[in-house]
Amino acid sequence: MSQSSPRVISTDKAPTTGFSPGTKAPISMAIAHNGLLFVSGQGPLDPATHTIVSDDFAEQTRSTLANLLRVVEAAGGTKDDIVRCNVYLRDMTNFPTFNAIYREFFETSRQFPARTCVRADPPRDGVLVEIDCIAAVAS
Q1: Which residue of the set 117, 120, 122, 132 is catalytic?
Q2: CA 5 – CA 71 distance, rounded (Å)
Q3: Which end of the chain has the smaller Cβ count within 10 Å, N or C?
Q4: Is 117 one of the annotated active-site residues of the chain?
Q5: Which of 124, 126, 138 has its CA nearest to residue 41?
Q6: Is the pLDDT of residue 1 over 50?
Q7: Which CATH number does the domain 7-15+28-136 belong to among 3.30.1330.40, 3.30.470.20, 3.40.50.1000, 1.20.1540.10?
């Protein structure tokens, strides 16, 4: 059985994560390998300015999901190909709002992805939600 080499996926349609001013992040936006796509955590950053889109949790969630999908699409996938999401919320009181937006985002898909949702403090101040995913995409 032949295995493909891992392939780095990146797109300028989603923001590149930055850690410190003037330093390049030591991560890939996504890695495709053997039909799976592993997407690094995406947040509510504007792809052009790399600034947080809003202080509003609902707007941050929609932006984060859009950024996640842009990375999946850069690898040739669609929303239907997302099979697992890991969700990190700064404040679990936002969970009902998150769940409603997440349901709306995926309700036209073939299935809802498997999911884990935990309370965590994303490293950037002001970021209220971060999501990473695994998608099944052709290599």
Answers
A1: 117
A2: 19
A3: N
A4: yes
A5: 124
A6: no
A7: 3.30.1330.40
